[in-house]
Design brief:
Blueprint lengths: L9 E4 L4 E4 L2 H45 L13 H4 L4 H8 L8 H18 L10 E5 L2 E4 L1 E2 L2 E2 L12 H19 L4 H6 L7 H12 L3 H11 L3
Antiparallel strand pairs: 1-2, 3-4, 5-6
Helix pairs in contact: 1-3, 1-4, 1-5, 4-5
């Protein structure tokens, strides 16, 4: 963090009518609050980036889930339609994509991330002080920060939407979920950009290769075909 320039702190001298350097004790106090505000601003910026990460990650999960659904037994069932799958929630898409693959705690990690962060931060509600209607006036003490839509004249500190600990939790869960995605037998093909073919014959061929233990070989061939 850049050091605060104490030379910019001045007070009004009533005898001369000019701004003069602030006494040390005043400069110390102003420096402290300036540094604190800088820290709060930095924490807020990091929280905003983390919130954008949560939003984009769930969009990413929906995207890859649809692509991986082409290698799911659900796609071979009567009545399955990609157009219908696209209308479903991320959770349904994820269930279809991993209907035949063990993914450990990935689904529960995503559900917890959605309930704790994605839903309240991106859809509002849940009474979170971080949603912007409240500020932290003292540690763990929050109060309404607006009067008729305008900030009050009280000295209040905006509370970041995500704490450093929460951001660490999110990043650790994303790493764990990514590992689960990469365990899918056809992840090599999907991550390389191979098109997902939902024709019944192609779906059945992919499922047959998975049952026989040859899914990895087929996925690599699909990925390598993109370079030809």
């Amino acid at each position: 963090m850049p050091e605060v320039d104490r030379s910019t702190f001045t007070v009004h001298d009533f005898e001369s009518g000019k701004q003069v350097p602030a006494p040390d004790f005043i400069a110390d106090t102003m420096s402290y609050f300036s540094e604190f505000q800088n820290e709060q601003q930095r924490a807020g910026e990091i929280a905003h980036v983390a919130t954008a990460l949560v939003a984009s990650y769930f969009a990413y999960i929906e995207h890859v889930s649809v692509l991986l659904a082409a290698y799911s037994s659900a796609a071979s069932e009567d009545g399955f339609a990609v157009s219908e799958l696209l209308r479903e929630s991320w959770a349904v898409k994820f269930d279809v994509a991993f209907a035949d693959v063990s993914i450990g705690s990935a689904k529960s990690d995503l559900s917890l991330m959605a309930s704790r962060f994605r839903n309240p931060l991106l859809h509002g509600g849940a009474g979170r002080a971080a949603d912007g209607m409240y500020v932290e006036v003292l540690p763990d003490v929050v109060a309404l920060a607006t009067e008729d839509g305008s900030p009050t004249d009280q000295f209040m500190l905006w509370k970041p939407s995500l704490t450093a600990e929460e951001i660490d939790w999110i990043l650790s869960r994303i790493a764990r979920i990514d590992a689960a995605l990469e365990s899918h037998p056809y992840w090599v093909a999907v991550s390389a950009g191979a098109p997902s073919n939902f024709s019944r014959d192609r779906v059945r061929k992919a499922l047959s290769a998975q049952r026989s233990g040859n899914a990895g070989q087929l996925a690599r061939a699909m990925a390598e075909a993109l370079d030809d």
